[in-house]
Amino acid sequence: MNNFDVFPKKSLLFAPMEGITDEPYRIALMKTFPEWDQFFTDFLRVPTVGKITEKMIIEHYGERILKREEWRKKNSFQILTTERAQTKAVVEILESLKMDHLDLNLGCPSKKVNSHHGGAYLLSNHTALKFVLKTIRENFTGHFTVKMRIGYRDDVNFSDSLKLIQDEGVEAITLHARTRDQLYKGVADWSYIKRAVEEVKIPLIGNGDIWIAEDIEKIFKETKCHSVMFGRSAMKTPWLAKIYKEYVNEGGHIDDTYWLYQRKHHLEIYFEALLAEYREVGWQDNLILKRFKSFSRNLYDDYDDFETIRGSFLRSESLAEYLDRLYALKG
Ligand SMILES: Cc1cc2nc3c(=O)[nH]c(=O)nc-3n(C[C@H](O)[C@H](O)[C@H](O)COP(=O)(O)O)c2cc1C
């Protein structure tokens, strides 16, 4: 086990997101917005039966990223597993590939995943959780972190979960400050992040509803967390880390006009970088268009007439039409 912090203090981490943070997406973001300190694969579901091959692990992570040292350092591999799944076999392959960083998903709220006793379910079964943590720690010498929620049904196990995770040699914890049953309801309760910071000695990464630069300042100040992670907010503002780093350096105030100006400027850069990477891996235009539409959910929220704008992007019948609308929006 490495004897130093996994991430530098105040790191800005781009969250693992299924259907989004695949290899081309992460490469596009690393090239365009290198201000993000770390990226994660979405979760690889560890199978219970069947052969596990190196090929499937490399495909999930991305072969181009694996081959390039500076990219590998910036990309963590996330798994989702259960007591019965073949965790050891997967971890052994990750170890043989000299993967720098493995993250265990303890937050997935999916009914299907939880009914198979994976994701956030493990927070309610400490015997199973302990077994999984041990299996990983005993077979993996790189950095090992977990990403958890406050609890499964409620917060009764919160402190015990933190303690168990720390005692089993996990090096940092990301906390999405909601229970599994809360799904995405309401607003994440950062007071649990503060509590966790006080209860563990390892770095605590705050996550949940950190939308703008001021939120980053606020969560660091209120909770004293080590670093922060962004999910939906990173999808809404993929240049958020850049803006924050500029904002902090300039000690400045970001008003709505500047925020919208940044959006107009960066939207085109973002989609062009994605387009280049999806084309690089041979995606057809209709697949790229589908992806672009799925990214459109929150991207245009800051415009006054955001519903009309979003609607027009979602109705685009071709990739060319989507891109034309993007250029027109820039004005
Ligand atoms: C579309 C989507 C996919 C996600 N996939 C994953 C995943 O694969 N692994 C994971 O640990 N969390 C996943 N999450 C949860 C996020 O990483 C993050 O914890 C959550 O969205 C809260 O942060 P936010 O308020 O910044 O969005 C996903 C979230 C979204 C919206």
Automatic annotation (TrEMBL):
Keyword Cell membrane: no
Lineage of producing organism: Bacteria, Pseudomonadati, Bdellovibrionota, Bacteriovoracia, Bacteriovoracales
E.C. no: 1.3.1.-
Cofactor: FMN
Family assignment from sequence similarity: Belongs to the dus family.
Organism: Bacteriovorax antarcticus
Domain of life where this protein originates: Bacteria
SUPFAM superfamilies: FMN-linked oxidoreductases
Gene Ontology MF: a single term: oxidoreductase activity
UniProt keyword Amino-acid biosynthesis, yes or no: no
Domain DUS-like FMN-binding residues, every copy: 14-251
InterPro entries in the record: Aldolase_TIM (IPR013785), DUS-like_FMN-bd (IPR035587), DUS_fam (IPR001269), tRNA_hU_synthase_CS (IPR018517)
Keywords attached to this entry: Flavoprotein, FMN, NADP, Oxidoreductase, tRNA processing
A Pfam cross-reference name: Dus
Protein name, as recorded: tRNA-dihydrouridine synthase
Known function: Catalyzes the synthesis of 5,6-dihydrouridine (D), a modified base found in the D-loop of most tRNAs, via the reduction of the C5-C6 double bond in target uridines.
